[in-house]
Design a protein that fits this description.
This protein has 4 helices and 30 strands. It is mainly beta. Helix content is 4%, strand content 35%. It is globular and about 70 Å long. Strands 6, 7, 19, 20, 21, 23, 26 and 28 form an 8-stranded mixed beta sheet that branches. Strands 9-8-5-11-16-13-14 form a 7-stranded mixed beta sheet, with no helix packed on it. The longest helix is centred in the first third of the chain and has 7 residues, at 24-30.
Length: 506
């Protein structure tokens, strides 16, 4: 952004990281990244926001500084380590696809290759492996960030000693008159219109946190359901993630309840707690963007692009030149290239929105993986999710070919539905529907559901998933849009776009 724009946006939880071409994944993994929290004492001092956690304690290193005791940035990353404790990031020798001999550079060094994903077997929080935190009986604000290379998290709470899952039923049994004590109040680009219940249980009830995503979470440890418990923050998201939480989707080498299935522990005080007035008074309907807040209610953007929605797609291709020996399978595997609009990063820019215009982008996912898509510069609203019915409609979807963008028949888009199902029939927690916590909040990350097929259909056809977002471009210049699985980004799933003067866009 321009220097004049710095810190003029809404109060929210941002982060920044190195974006060097080809080594973004390594630098972010090694720690060249940090939170960037924007606060607004005027806005956050009125209405419901005035009750947000504001406890402070003296900084033990620099006594003149103070930090928020109950407002905690929490970055979650999976890591791999060598025997001496050094960070490890797997690489593989690049092989020619004809002889399968190692390829070498001009100096005779063997060329290294990366896989399209990296799965660590140790979960770290703020740089510590599986840490614990002693918490008091009161409201805490957890600013969650997924800083992992490839791993998506699905978060929920469990008693570490009894194995009980902390659910709304369990909370109601402990305190019948109180509301659910875990709510989301914001996302990547600001506060929600109102708080919303989240992390109510495993699978579809969990809180999905995608790569690069941030979730502003309130957890009321003053609620009796937490009293005296050792509470694990759990993860049950399969890796790689294709939108399916069933046991059939789990690869035990990447998701193990003893390791990658646990994130951290909260040791809750056993004294009687006082539930938060922010949650107890009105529960999830608590208004956050009131009329006294300059931000105002969350709006609905109106597209201004005369040409209509901009269709963009995600494709996976096998590299015709390079392969590698996968030590986990013992097989030679063709390297995967992941593309946006079937185009490499360095190709000429094709997306040229006009400054101060509002566009509707439709991300079409023709791959089997969920892709967390991120657009630099902008904030956007998530309008619709679903699948494209390319069985009924011959012209439903024509993939981008590198020369022309994808084409789609608007009639073939089936909103809020699993592949093959009728519109508006998606089950709770489905990735083919806008999640309740994705609506009415400004975002800069969105998971795009994968291509799929009807269960037990026996048909080979794949229905692409899609997401429709609306966004405004308020600054001239060149920016990027990419999948925030960093190893995907560095396997070419990143493209530039150029914001141009009014009247000169495409």
């Amino acid at each position: 952004r321009r220097s004049s724009d710095l810190n003029t946006q809404e109060a929210t939880t941002l982060w920044f990281h190195d974006h060097s071409m080809g080594i973004t994944r390594l630098n972010a993994y090694a720690g060249v990244a940090a939170f960037y929290v924007i606060k607004d004492p005027v806005v956050e001092g009125v209405g419901a926001l005035a009750n947000l956690p504001k406890g402070r304690y003296a900084n033990p290193v620099v006594p003149s500084l103070q930090s928020d005791e109950f407002d905690l940035p929490v970055v979650i990353q999976d890591k791999a380590f060598t025997e001496d404790g050094s960070l490890a990031f797997p690489t593989f020798v690049n092989l020619g696809t004809y002889t399968y001999n190692a390829l070498h550079d001009s100096s005779g060094n063997a060329l290294a290759s990366i896989r399209p994903e990296m799965w660590g077997n140790v979960i770290t929080v703020n740089g510590k492996a599986w840490p614990y935190k002693n918490v008091k009986n009161q409201l805490y604000r957890l600013r969650l960030l997924n800083g992992s290379d490839s791993r998506i998290y699905n978060l929920w709470f469990q008693d570490a000693d009894t194995g009980e899952v902390i659910t709304p039923d369990l909370a109601t049994a402990a305190a019948p008159t109180l509301t659910w004590p875990v709510v989301q109040i914001g996302a990547e680009q600001g506060y929600r219109n109102e708080a919303i219940d989240v992390a109510t249980g495993p699978g579809p009830g969990g809180l999905l946190l995608v790569n690069g995503g941030r979730i502003d979470l309130l957890v009321d440890f003053g609620h009796p359901v937490f009293k005296g418990r050792n509470v694990i923050l759990r993860n049950d998201c399969p890796a790689p993630f294709g939108g399916d939480f069933s046991q059939m989707a789990v690869d035990e080498t990447t998701l193990d309840p003893k390791t990658t299935g646990r994130v951290m522990l909260f040791k809750v005080a056993s004294t009687a707690g006082t539930p938060s007035p922010l949650l107890a008074a009105a529960g999830p309907a608590t208004s956050l963007r009131t009329s006294v807040v300059p931000y105002g209610a969350y709006p609905n953007l109106t597209p201004t692009r005369a040409a209509g929605p901009r269709y963009v797609d995600m494709q996976e291709r096998k590299d015709p030149v390079n392969s590698f020996l996968d030590p986990t399978t013992g097989l030679v595997t063709f390297r995967t290239i992941l593309l946006l609009n079937n185009t490499m990063f360095h190709a000429p820019i094709t997306e040229k929105p006009e400054v101060n215009s509002t566009e509707e982008w439709v991300f079409i996912n023709a791959t089997p993986d969920v892709h967390p898509m991120h657009i630099h510069l902008t904030k956007f609203e998530v309008i619709e999710k679903g699948y494209i019915d390319n069985l009924t409609f011959d012209d439903a979807y024509t993939p981008a070919d590198g020369n022309a963008p994808p084409r789609a028949n608007p009639a073939a888009f089936v909103p809020n539905a699993e592949p093959g199902d009728p519109a508006n029939s998606a089950r709770p927690g489905s990735l083919y529907a806008v999640a309740p916590n994705e609506a009415k909040v400004w975002k800069d990350m969105v998971p795009v559901p994968p291509a799929g097929q009807p269960l037990e259909s026996g048909q080979p056809i794949q229905y692409p998933g899609y997401v429709r977002v609306r966004l405004k471009f308020d600054s001239l210049g060149a920016y990027m849009w990419h999948c925030h699985i960093l190893s995907h980004e560095e396997n070419e799933m990143m493209r530039p776009f150029l914001v141009v003067p009014a009247g000169s866009g495409n």
